[in-house]
């Protein structure tokens, strides 16, 4: 993968913390920033996915679906009863 060099401006305190973290992890500052950015992007994607899932299940279900869910929960409880 092609690397692109970039420059960023951050507060001195944050820079000092990043420097210490990079040293303790035995990675370069650049690598630490890459790790942090990858983690941030993954976190954002997970939040978006969760929002989409919640939106999909936010619709009020009809009576038949509610009845089916109650029966499914009852059946599941019977199946796992005493396993824990």
From TrEMBL:
Any GO BP annotation: regulation of DNA-templated transcription
Region: Disordered, residue numbers: 61-84
InterPro entries in the record: Arc_rbn_hlx_hlx, Ribbon_hlx_hlx
Protein name: CopG family transcriptional regulator
Origin species: Geobacter pickeringii
């Amino acid at each position: 993968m092609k690397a692109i060099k970039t420059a960023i401006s951050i507060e001195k305190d944050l820079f000092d913390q990043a420097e210490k973290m990079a040293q303790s992890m035995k990675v370069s500052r650049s690598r630490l920033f890459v790790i942090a950015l990858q983690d941030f992007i993954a976190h954002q994607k997970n939040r978006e996915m969760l929002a989409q899932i919640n939106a999909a299940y936010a619709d009020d279900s009809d009576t038949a679906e509610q009845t089916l869910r109650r029966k499914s929960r009852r059946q599941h409880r019977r199946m796992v009863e005493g396993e824990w």
